[in-house]
Specification:
Blueprint lengths: L9 H22 L7 H5 L2 H20 L6 H21 L5 H14 L2 H4 L8 H18 L15 H14 L7 H21 L2 H21 L4 H25 L9 H16 L1
Enzyme class: hydrolase
GO molecular function: ATP diphosphatase activity
Protein name: Nucleoside triphosphate pyrophosphohydrolase
Length: 278
């Protein structure tokens, strides 16, 4: 058992959790102390820290994708720091503190799991649980006076993720294509419109049509039960891997990619592709 492994005694684990969370909150408060803290930390605000919060979330996802379990605790710690950082800045403004953040998510989890913390039956499928979860969230949105179906889908989400959420919301009220075949037809239509915009030389229109095509591609992923973010990450990794094979093959000849023409690099790409499939 390593030092990071859970303790055999749950009570000891709970005590350590409390101690380390308290220590982290105290460290953050010290870093933000206007007289003795770190000048960089003191200068930050919600807007300046937000990009780091997003970046750290992606680094957690990256560690999972790479199965880099030795890095995983550190990446989760970096993400937790973002929560503590925002909570500390909020506390300084008299808005809320870390305990309020923890209480909000604890209350939400209890409210959204009546089959665990209430008297509802646990005898239902995961699909039914998703439907129940969405019904609870809809009631929460109604309580917030979010009247539109698409209200509350965060603007700050990555565009592809937000597209999926918007489409899922619309689909729940029946605004959706019957199946993937219909979406494929729409992709063909949007592709033709993209070509027309390109030929017309109107870059603003071209950008609009490209966005439409991307939006429909996200919808196709939804109909095929594919995570488009995950699929694109895998495609990025595949491209990186195969291009590295091109570089390695050329390096073995004492050359670099800029020393080769497209036809040669394409042949090396196909060789790397064939090697992967062998």
């Amino acid at each position: 058992m390593t030092d990071l492994a859970p303790n055999a005694d749950p009570r000891a684990d709970a005590e350590r959790n409390r101690a380390e969370i308290t220590r982290l909150i105290e460290i953050m408060a010290a870093l933000r102390d206007p007289e003795t803290g770190c000048p960089w930390d003191i200068e930050q605000d919600f807007a300046s820290i937000a990009p780091y919060t997003i970046e750290e979330a992606y680094e957690v996802a990256d560690a999972i994708a790479r199965e880099a379990w030795d890095e995983f605790p550190g990446e989760l710690g970096d993400l937790l720091l973002q929560v503590v950082f925002h909570a500390q800045m909020a506390a300084e403004k008299g808005m809320f503190g870390f305990a309020d953040v923890a209480a909000k998510i604890s209350d939400k989890l209890i409210d959204r799991h009546p089959h665990v913390f209430g008297d509802e039956s646990r005898d239902k499928s995961a699909a039914q649980q998703v439907k129940d979860w969405e019904a609870i969230k809809a009631a929460e949105r109604a309580a917030k006076a979010e009247k539109g179906v698409l209200d509350g889908v965060a603007l700050g989400l990555p565009a592809l993720t937000r597209a999926l959420k918007l489409q899922n919301r619309a689909a729940r009220v029946g605004f959706d294509w019957p199946g993937a075949a219909d979406v494929l037809d729409k992709i063909a239509e949007e592709t033709a419109e993209l070509v027309e915009a390109r030929d017309a030389g109107d870059h603003a229109h071209l950008t609009e049509e490209f966005g439409d095509l991307m939006f429909v591609m996200a919808n196709l992923a939804r109909h095929l039960d594919i995570d488009p973010e995950g699929a694109l990450r895998a495609a990025n990794e595949k491209f990186t891997r195969r291009f590295a094979a091109i570089e390695a093959a050329l390096q073995a000849q004492g050359r670099r990619p800029e020393d080769a023409d497209l036809a040669e690099m394409d042949a090396l790409w196909n060789a790397a592709k064939a090697q992967e499939r062998a």
